[in-house]
Automatic annotation (TrEMBL):
InterPro entries linked: DNA_helicase_Holl-junc_RuvA_I, Hlx-hairpin-Hlx_DNA-bd_motif, NA-bd_OB-fold, RuvA, RuvA_2-like, RuvA_C, RuvA_C_sf
Domain III as annotated region, ranges: 153-206
Keyword Hydrolase recorded: yes
Stated role: The RuvA-RuvB-RuvC complex processes Holliday junction (HJ) DNA during genetic recombination and DNA repair, while the RuvA-RuvB complex plays an important role in the rescue of blocked DNA replication forks via replication fork reversal (RFR). RuvA specifically binds to HJ cruciform DNA, conferring on it an open structure. The RuvB hexamer acts as an ATP-dependent pump, pulling dsDNA into and through the RuvAB complex. HJ branch migration allows RuvC to scan DNA until it finds its consensus sequence, where it cleaves and resolves the cruciform DNA.
Source organism of the structure: Ureibacillus thermosphaericus
Notes concerning its domains: Has three domains with a flexible linker between the domains II and III and assumes an 'L' shape. Domain III is highly mobile and contacts RuvB.
Family listed: Belongs to the RuvA family.
Description of how the protein assembles with itself and partners: Homotetramer. Forms an RuvA(8)-RuvB(12)-Holliday junction (HJ) complex. HJ DNA is sandwiched between 2 RuvA tetramers; dsDNA enters through RuvA and exits via RuvB. An RuvB hexamer assembles on each DNA strand where it exits the tetramer. Each RuvB hexamer is contacted by two RuvA subunits (via domain III) on 2 adjacent RuvB subunits; this complex drives branch migration. In the full resolvosome a probable DNA-RuvA(4)-RuvB(12)-RuvC(2) complex forms which resolves the HJ.
An example Gene Ontology molecular-function term: four-way junction helicase activity
One Gene Ontology cellular component: Holliday junction helicase complex
Record's protein name: Holliday junction branch migration complex subunit RuvA
Secretion signal, residue range per the UniProt entry: none
All copies of domain Helix-hairpin-helix DNA-binding motif class, residue ranges: 71-90, 106-125
Chain's gene name: ruvA
UniProt GO BP: DNA recombination; DNA repair
Amino acid sequence: MYDYIIGQVTRITPEYVVLEQSGIGYAIITPNPFAFRVNEEKQRVFVHMHVREDAQQLYGFKTIEERELFKKLIQVSGIGPKSALSILASGNPSHVITAIEMEDEKYLVKFPGVGKKTARQMILDLKGKLGSLLEHVELPSAEDELPLFGVNPYQHELEEAMLALHALGYSEKELEKIKPLLSEKEDLQTTENYMKYALKLLLTTK
């Protein structure tokens, strides 16, 4: 129905962003809302309309590749939109695709809502079908790496990141386990950086 919407981001919440276009504010659910910024610049968001009996929801992504991987994931039995978002929130679609191609169930089961049965189903359904996406996925550059030293982290941004991760399906127990590590980490500064680093911790320590 929609391919993308170009507009201004006017609000950011832990679960969605509001994109205003032609006087209409679209609530768009996205893997990492804090990857967006509230400003006057026009932003292009690639969208997918998900229709259920009780709701019609817009899901949005910064790249076509993220959206197409999301659409592939929700076709797998046992993977709903929320689970697909938590997988994409890691910010590394290439890692997910590689795990599927390499049949790395251990990596896949670290995401909320993905057990061994679902991980196996992902591999059965998607292996060999994601090559075109992998060719276009951008790997993080050195500039994208989180800084190691600097000023103390900001508590407000840390709390926003915790709320966003909880909305993605991570439990209070999981988040409380990594929160001290996040608090000690220097120079993260933004909610987006807190989320990226938290996801790295969750995927390596779970």
